[in-house]
């Protein structure tokens, strides 16, 4: 197991390098000049611009620029500075906290609501409850985040307060602490909740048809124990995989949600930085996201072995 | 026979006049979208303490469905039991409440399944699965129950039981897995054990060992054994009596040796003749012509008539009753006399 973890981490290195290089190239290929962007509407002085170009190595070949960057990250843990000389790591730190809070809120909702609804539907298969749950998941999947986000913001964030006087969901920002993450968390988790509901339903229904469930019943166990211990334990395996892989998606996919609810997370920052051609910030954020993806996947794979004894890592 | 109210558990101790387990005129249907599948159409059989009843028949003959009805593990719906009784020590199990049936299931009537790999839960250790019986039904502590599991694994002769109790099902060979299945089923000393094709998935040499083990356990505990199989070879050594099923009916029942010597139903006869025999090496193997019936549309009259070499006109129209041949034998064939005589030639 230890060797497996080490091997997986070593495998992550080329993935990380490839991903950063790709992002580096893409950001470079974006039209527009970062030095010009620094001066906003004004036209920069030619001499000043030349000095700045030299200072940020913008005249060097692309691969050399990449080397300056990645060697700093790898050997000094230094993600560089943006064009205002603010360290990228400093920019990211606070923003990551916000996005992590958001993603974990979303993940928790996903696990509780998705698995809950899925189990309910599976146990009422073919009945009205099942049909209703399936229909609502389809709705959740079909409507884009952009729409659910604004609609829920209006209804629960604005109108609920106007109509009932209850201030439960803040309209935007993170001033209300964890409470401010509830609404954006749900919006972010929306489609995942729907997918997980369906996955749970299928997984449990499939499991309950297995021979060992018949055996468990034949052992004289109560239905609660048959489903709760023998069924659920097996049905859980694919769900954990989905949840683990989804953490990365939630962190990386929060751009729209963070914009709608004005949360100062990395999604929002990524949007701003792409807009400002802040290459180091964009690459830094994406690198960190790739790292989270890789680690989340590793944890999922290890969890898999814990949940399913038939899987062994050598 | 006194009628039983729901929730009353079958008595323990002496049997009185009652057979240990008796199935009477049992009907099971599956109501599907395609129509009503009549899987079991009036099955009657019984088994006593220490007795082995072999239920013989090809796939789809209703032998497993009957067993599942006895255990109460049919999915209802789609399965429906429109008629019949399953009397355990005189109590009709079908009239019991679900809670009362759960008390019988596993503790007093246990079952072994065909494929132990899929019948054991892949994510729990075998020790956990065996000891669950003691934890749930006897309220034992984890440690105590685990000790019991080791004892049981010893009893079904699994080598190094003490270490292997912590292994998972996939880490065992097919024969060992079936032994674990057996250990689990006999954990609470059931009075009746139903073995549904316990050796079908195993190598021939291992088959013999498993059958021997079952026979030995039965001798020790005097449980009634219902052995479901399609393998005539397995049956001869261990069974006391045989019930042959076809299209959801018992077509012949008899003490084991009578059936081998003189089958009284054309289907049984066909089965016996289709066994490869060394002394007939080189000759064509006999096969019963035609296919098993479609349970959605059973043939009129005798279900076996489209495949029967003894068929007469009335076979197509009249359902043959179970004719009594002697006190212990019966055949559901209009022409059982001709069949028995035919064997003599």
From TrEMBL, chain A:
- What are the annotated GO cellular component locations? plasma membrane
Extract the Gene3D superfamilies matched here.
MetI-like
Among PROSITE patterns, the record links this protein to: ABC_TM1
Please provide the record's keywords in A-Z order.
Cell membrane, Membrane, Transmembrane, Transmembrane helix, Transport
The ABC transmembrane type-1 domain is annotated at 96-304
Where located? Cell membrane
In Swiss-Prot or TrEMBL terms, this protein is called Peptide/nickel transport system permease protein/oligopeptide transport system permease protein
Its source organism is Nonomuraea jiangxiensis
Its taxonomic placement starts with:
Bacteria, Bacillati, Actinomycetota, Actinomycetes, Streptosporangiales
TrEMBL record, chain B:
Record keywords, A-Z: ATP-binding, Cell membrane, Membrane, Nucleotide-binding, Transport
Q: Which residues form the ABC transporter domain?
A: 21-272
InterPro entries from the xrefs?
Answer: AAA+_ATPase, ABC_Ni/Peptide_Import, ABC_transporter-like_ATP-bd, ABC_transporter-like_CS, Oligopep_ABC_C, P-loop_NTPase
Where does this one sit in the cell?
Cell membrane
Iron-sulfur found in the keyword field: no
Check the record and name the Pfam families matching this protein: ABC_tran, oligo_HPY
The keyword Nucleotide-binding appears for this protein: yes
User: What family name appears in the similarity comment?
Assistant: Belongs to the ABC transporter superfamily.
List the protein's name: Peptide/nickel transport system ATP-binding protein/oligopeptide transport system ATP-binding protein
Q: Which organism is it from?
A: Nonomuraea jiangxiensis
């Amino acid at each position: 197991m230890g060797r497996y973890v080490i091997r997986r981490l070593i495998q992550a290195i080329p993935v990380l390098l490839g991903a950063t290089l790709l992002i580096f190239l893409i950001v470079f290929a974006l039209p527009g000049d970062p030095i010009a962007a620094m001066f906003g509407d004004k036209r920069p002085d030619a001499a000043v611009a030349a000095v700045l170009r030299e200072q940020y190595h913008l005249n060097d070949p692309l691969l050399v620029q990449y080397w300056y960057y990645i060697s700093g990250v790898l050997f000094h843990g230094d993600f560089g500075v943006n064009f205002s000389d603010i360290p990228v790591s400093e920019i990211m730190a606070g923003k990551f906290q916000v996005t992590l809070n958001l993603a974990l809120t979303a993940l928790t909702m996903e696990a509780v609501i998705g698995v809950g609804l899925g189990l309910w539907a599976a146990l009422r298969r073919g009945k009205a409850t099942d049909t209703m749950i399936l229909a609502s998941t389809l709705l959740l999947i079909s409507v884009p985040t952009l729409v659910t986000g604004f609609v829920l913001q209006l209804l629960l964030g604005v109108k609920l307060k106007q109509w009932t006087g209850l201030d439960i969901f803040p309209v935007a920002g993170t001033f209300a602490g964890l409470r401010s993450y509830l609404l954006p968390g749900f919006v972010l988790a929306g489609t995942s909740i729907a997918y997980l509901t369906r996955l749970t339903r299928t997984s449990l229904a499939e499991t309950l048809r297995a021979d060992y469930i018949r055996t468990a019943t034949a052992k004289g166990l109560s239905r609660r124990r048959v489903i709760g211990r023998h069924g659920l334990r097996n049905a859980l395996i694919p769900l954990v995989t989905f949840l683990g892989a989804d953490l990365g998606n939630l962190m990386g996919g929060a751009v729209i949600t963070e914009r709608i609810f004005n949360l100062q997370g990395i999604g929002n920052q990524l949007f701003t930085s792409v807009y400002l051609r802040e290459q180091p910030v964009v690459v830094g954020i994406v690198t960190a996201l790739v790292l989270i993806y890789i680690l989340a996947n590793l944890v999922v794979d290890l969890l898999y072995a814990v949940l399913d004894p038939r899987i062994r890592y050598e | 026979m006194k009628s039983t109210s729901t929730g009353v558990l079958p008595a323990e101790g002496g049997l009185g006049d009652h057979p240990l387990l008796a199935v009477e005129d049992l009907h099971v249907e599956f109501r599907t979208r395609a129509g009503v599948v009549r899987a079991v159409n009036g099955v009657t059989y019984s088994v006593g303490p220490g007795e082995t009843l072999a239920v013989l028949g090809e796939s789809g003959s209703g032998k497993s469905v009957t067993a599942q009805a006895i255990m109460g593990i049919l999915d209802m719906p789609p399965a429906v039991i429109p008629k019949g009784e399953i009397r355990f020590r005189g109590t009709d199990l079908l009239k019991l409440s679900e809670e009362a049936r759960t008390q019988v299931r596993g503790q007093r009537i246990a079952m072994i399944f065909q494929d132990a790999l899929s019948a054991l839960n892949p994510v729990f250790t075998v020790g956990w699965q065996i000891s669950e019986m003691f934890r749930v039904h006897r309220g034992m502590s984890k440690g105590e129950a685990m000790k019991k599991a080791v004892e049981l694994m010893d009893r079904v002769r699994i080598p190094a039981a003490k270490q292997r109790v912590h292994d998972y099902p996939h880490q065992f060979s097919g024969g060992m897995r079936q032994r674990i299945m057996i250990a689990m089923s006999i954990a609470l000393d059931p009075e009746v054990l139903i073995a549904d094709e316990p050796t079908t998935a195993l190598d021939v040499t291992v088959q013999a060992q498993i059958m021997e083990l079952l026979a030995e356990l039965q001798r020790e505990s005097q449980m009634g054994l219902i052995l479901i199989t399609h393998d005539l070879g397995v049956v001869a050594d261990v069974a006391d009596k045989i019930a042959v099923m076809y299209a959801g009916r018992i077509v012949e029942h008899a003490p084991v040796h009578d059936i081998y010597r003189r089958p009284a139903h054309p289907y049984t006869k066909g089965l016996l003749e289709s066994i490869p025999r060394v002394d007939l090496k080189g000759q064509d193997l006999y096969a019963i012509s035609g296919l098993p019936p479609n349970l959605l549309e059973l043939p009129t009259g005798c279900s076996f008539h489209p495949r029967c070499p003894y068929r007469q006109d009335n076979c197509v129209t009249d359902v043959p009753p179970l004719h009594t041949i002697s006190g212990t034998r019966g055949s559901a064939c209009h022409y059982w006399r001709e069949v028995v005589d035919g064997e003599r030639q």
